[in-house]
Design goal:
Arc Repressor Mutant, subunit A; 56% helix; 3 helices; globular; mainly alpha
């Protein structure tokens, strides 16, 4: 997975962390959780606030 795989990342996060409410997650924590996902191989420097926000929004939708 790469940072651009926002849909896949959101699904994985929802499955792996059902106890976390993504509405209130800090971007620093979200970044760490994404990088800890199995199969995530992208560089930490390749993300930005826009990508993290997209992941967060899709994760929120996935939970609903």
């Amino acid at each position: 997975m790469l940072w651009t795989d926002v849909n896949e990342i959101a699904i994985e996060l929802a499955e792996k962390h059902p106890d976390i409410d993504p509405t209130y997650i800090l971007f620093t924590d979200l970044r760490r959780l994404v990088m800890e996902l199995e199969g995530f191989i992208d560089s930490p420097e390749k993300t930005n606030e826009k990508i993290l926000e997209a992941i967060q929004m899709l994760w929120i939708e996935e939970r609903e």
